[in-house]
Amino acid sequence: MGFQRVMQRCLHKGTFLLGAAMVGLMLLLMTVGLFYTPYDPEAMDTQHALAFFSPAHPLGTDQFGRDVLSRVMVGARYSFLVGALTVVFGLVLGGVVGAVAGYYGGKIDEVVMKLIDVQMAFPGVLLALMLIAVFGNGLQNLVLALGLMSVPRFARIARGGFLQYRDAEFVKAARARGAGDGRILFRHILPHLTPELVVTGALGFAGAVMSEAGLSYLGLGMEPTTPSFGRMLSEAQGEMLQAWWYVLIPAAAITLLVMGFNLMGDALQEVTRHG
């Protein structure tokens, strides 16, 4: 099924539309935050610390008097950035590895899949914790760790697809016309795998956002000064009895992003499976 047809069918599914609305809300906050935030997200005003919702601070303030809405708008930027870079990293590296393994088969396939199996047997979060502990906090190290976690998922999808199509009639016809392996791989076979890779990307995006939030909650994700939903949730935990609403804001932001992409991914998966 072509990608355009898949998307057309998804637009008639309530779960996809609900997920798109959730992601769209966070995307809107992020986009506005690129050009305008009500306050400097790092500006402190201890006289108004832990303030409840008000016209001046629609989502209140944190324990340092920083505007929570401004921090959410900036935090959404980093969540989308981490999710997108993680998916791109996993898609490119995992897609190429899986394509080579599935198309050529034989010893190449055997060696590649054994390496993938070894990585999948190693807990992904533990691998991320190890890499960040060695190389330190920061966006680059976080994306590297989460990207490596996502490689096996994309590699398996790509391998399965290339195994399925490498002996198809349109591939044989392309070879007969003198097309090289590179053209066959990326021009003839890859477009047939787009729906499955998009599903994997949507679910991988949700997983990356959740993993980033978890690592930042533990103090092992983004830099300490960077507004991150996980770090905001960690900071809010200590103020739960005094400002219960402060905990709900970052938790709701994480939920909207993760659940939104999961709903979209599930709808895409259902459509591709049932053709």
What does the model show?
The chain is mostly helical and 275 residues long. Helix content is 74%, strand content 0%. It is built from 11 helices and no strands. The protein has helices spanning 3-10, 14-35, 68-104, 106-121, 124-135, 139-165, 169-176, 181-189, 194-217, 229-237, 244-274. Helix 5 runs antiparallel to helix 6. The longest helix has 37 residues, at 68-104. The mean pLDDT is 87.
Radius of gyration from the CA trace? 22 Å
Question: Strand count, sense and closure of the main sheet?
Answer: none
In whole angstroms, the N-to-C terminal distance is: 6 Å
Low-confidence stretches: none
Total beta-strand segments? 0
Count of runs of 4 or more consecutive helical residues = 11
> Order of SSEs, N→C?
HHHHHHHHHHH
Label the structural class.
mainly alpha
What is the 3D form?
Answer: elongated
> How big a fraction of the residues is strand?
under 5%
The percent range for helix content is over 70%
Mean pLDDT: 87
